[in-house]
Amino acid sequence: MSAPRSPASRPLTPVSRVLRLCLHALFAGLLALAAGRAVTDGAPRAGWVVAVCALLVALYMGGVLTPAVHRSPRAGAAWLAALGSAWAALLVVSPDGLWLAFPLYFLELHLLRLRWGIAAVAVTACAAIGGFLGHSGPADGIVVTPGAFLGPLLGGAVAVATVLGYQALYRESERRRQLIEELIATRAELAAAERSAGILAERERLAREIHDTLAQGLSSIQLLLRAAERSLPQDAAVRPAVHAVALEHIGRAREAAQDNLAEARRFVRALTPPDLEHGSLAAALERLCSAAPGPRVRFSLSGTPRALPTPYEVALLRIAQSALANVVRHARAGRAEITLTFMDASVTLDVVDDGHGFDVCSAPSGEGGFGLPAMRSRAETLGGLFTVESAPGQGTAVAVTLPLPLEAL
């Protein structure tokens, strides 16, 4: 079993803070009890008991306030060794040092690896029993009973069980926290994908409307003005001023129509996503493969390329980007290939790698789960089919098939 993380490396929850404060209070209270009893009972070694208790307080506070003790297992072990040596001295001068074994159990289990922590608990229990037996006898007025043996052993067992139970609960809490974070990330990613799809659909609609109405209207105006210019009589000797003014107005109208037509076309081009504005989808995918870090990525095109609506191109490009990012971050692959296939009534994108793969059935969701839900959502929004084929040690294949819209057939 792996070693538990030190308390300083864990995020402190309110429960963790309360438990830590309780441990400090227990240690201080037991030391105060041992020193107080030695003074009030007039023990022959009362001075030594108080001095050793003061030394233990100093050592304990020094370890608590030293960050290296909680970050470094070696420093933690050295601190426990010093604390244990001072505690052994307390056992020699006072039988009340026996009770200090219980907080020591928790310190050993938290700061040491589990197997070493359990061994330290066993040694501490044996030292506690030995110290108690060393003070038993008629002169000290202490009678040896089975409880003298069972108490430290049961205390050690309870400490081990408590720490193991706390670690199990902590791991379960961490898994739940990670799951919640992944679900929140997936929900945010899906919402962003839906917003992006809506924005792109609206952009395409605006571009189509501008192209089909405003741009066409301006082109028609320009043609009509040209026709009007040609229809003017060439012989304008009768009314030369009217003829010149008409030609000037027609020329200015043609210039205005030409300028606005060019502006409308620039506006339509500006509505294209940045990744696709410098060429086709195939060109964007080829650039994506050439710029990918890590494994060698090859792009191939199959079938006869055709123009696709902007939402289709954006969805395929984003899915390719997400799948390739998974290959780079998670697959540990040496090679990968992106294939874009145009068929009679559909277009297919395949992303295949030779990485270590994963179990599709048990794959998590969200950012930590390879972003599969977001890719699936993009495909299904356009009525497509999204599939993932993978197994441990056998690579991964991601495929998305989108039916072509009627205007692209």
UniProtKB/TrEMBL annotation:
Ranges of residues in domain Histidine kinase: 316-406
Regions that span the bilayer: 46-65, 77-102, 114-135, 147-169
Entry's EC annotation: 2.7.13.3
Location in the cell: Cytoplasm
Keyword Iron-sulfur attached: yes
Predominant subcellular localization, coarse grouping: cytoplasm
Molecular function (Gene Ontology), one example: kinase activity
Name this polypeptide is given: Oxygen sensor histidine kinase NreB
Lineage, top ranks: Bacteria, Bacillati, Actinomycetota, Actinomycetes, Kitasatosporales
